[in-house]
Design goal:
transmembrane helix; mainly alpha; about 400 residues; single chain; transmembrane; 2 domains; about 75% helix
Length: about 400
């Protein structure tokens, strides 16, 4: 469910995902209009925004790394079961929250009946299931680092889908901007040592289905009464998604499952795994309620970089110098596409003022920050060079 939850949240955010990346926007104001409503009951104003950013990055990265370990390292090669289990757990938790808490009371503001559900929600759920299946199957064949690089192209595919469905008019200036992302992803793909054509195909299918889902979400959210935060979306999506994935799992995977497959992982770890996946949705709500669209975008980029580094350290995934260059180009293009030049200029000015302020008032902190940044780059470069040797 690595990609599963990245899609449900990061794409209700992102990444994500889940969603906040639903539309091709180039300014903070435009992105903010697409943000789901905040849930002040979940947000504690006494906590610094950095806590919510760290919580979201930890849960989002943790889900992906945890599931990569379950599917690959523990040799539990049943991704359909894993997504079904996560969705079943999420459905049970959201039902309990709706019954015994007030955290999902905003669902009452969404006009929902059976006909509306079939017309507006069910197609999204089907595409969501297909994106989860395609994405999770990819983890059986590709490294976490390479998958994260491929996910950078999600913004491009979503943009093209919005043009195809005539949600926004084609803009070839924007197309020129996003072509940088494609260029970077192509360079990174050509540099992949452990390239697997079937895994690549699964990931591409997952990205396409996710882009189509985001387009349908954007069309749905164009009506004010259908604005839903990630938890309410999960409340509606999870039961049917679990049923669809479960039906496919019963046909494809169940005949070959044995008790030994489950014993290799252990029931307690399956439970912890589902809890971490569910906490990702909670952290997404908290992050949305406490930060801005700019912070969400930059947090997603930081998370992707940390995931690449973590996969290199934990799983020994090789990342070549060519991939490092290509992924850097793709990330740069992604940031420019999502934030726009005006926002980036404003951020650069704010960063300059902040650095000058720290240099004047806290010079020691600035030195430590520079040393930490240099150390990170040295370690990352060393890992990349080590991984470039077959």
């Amino acid at each position: 469910m690595a990609q599963a939850q990245y899609s449900a949240a990061d794409r209700h955010s992102s990444d994500e995902h889940p969603d906040l990346e639903a539309g091709p926007t180039n300014s903070e104001a435009a992105q903010s209009q697409a943000l789901p409503p905040k849930q002040p009951g979940l947000v504690d104003d006494r906590l610094h925004p950095a806590f919510y950013i760290a919580f979201w990055i930890a849960t989002s990265s943790g889900v992906i790394l945890f599931n990569k370990w379950v599917l690959a390292a523990a040799n539990f090669r049943f991704p359909l079961f894993l997504t079904t289990w996560h969705m079943t757990f999420a459905a049970a938790m959201t039902q309990l929250m709706a019954r015994y808490t007030t955290l999902l009371d905003s669902r009452h503001n969404v006009p929902m009946d059976l006909e509306t559900y079939k017309r507006a929600i069910l197609p999204i759920v089907i595409l969501f299931s297909l994106s989860l299946i395609g994405g999770n199957l990819a983890y059986l064949y590709l490294s976490v680092s390479f998958i994260q690089m491929l996910k950078a192209s999600n913004a491009v595919v979503t943009l093209l889908a919005t043009w195809a469905f005539k949600i926004v008019p084609p803009n070839f200036n924007v197309l020129g901007n996003v072509s940088i992302i494609v260029f970077g992803v192509v360079i990174a793909s050509l540099g992949e040592i452990k390239f697997h054509s079937l895994g690549f195909l699964f990931q591409v299918c997952g990205i396409i289905f996710e882009a189509l889902r985001l387009v349908m979400v954007q069309r749905l959210l164009s009506s004010p009464e259908f604005k839903m935060d990630p938890m309410v979306s999960l409340y509606y999506y999870a039961p049917v998604c679990a049923a669809i994935n479960g039906a496919l799992m019963a046909v494809v995977e169940l005949p070959s499952m044995t008790l030994a497959d489950f014993s290799r992982v252990g029931i307690p770890l399956f439970i912890v795994n589902a809890i971490v996946a569910f906490l990702l949705n909670v952290s997404t709500v908290l992050l949305i309620g406490k930060t801005s669209a700019v912070v969400l975008t930059m947090s997603g980029i930081l998370k992707d970089i940390l995931l690449v580094v973590s996969s290199m350290v934990l799983f020994g995934d090789p990342v070549t110098g060519q991939q490092f260059i290509g992924y850097s180009i793709a990330l740069g293009g992604l940031v420019y596409y999502k934030l726009g030049s005006d926002t980036l200029k404003a951020l650069a000015q704010e960063a300059t003022l902040a650095v000058n302020n720290v240099r004047q008032n806290h010079p020691a902190r600035l030195r430590y920050a520079i040393m930490a940044g240099v150390l990170f780059l040295v370690v990352f470069t060393w890992l990349a060079l080590r991984g470039s040797v077959p």
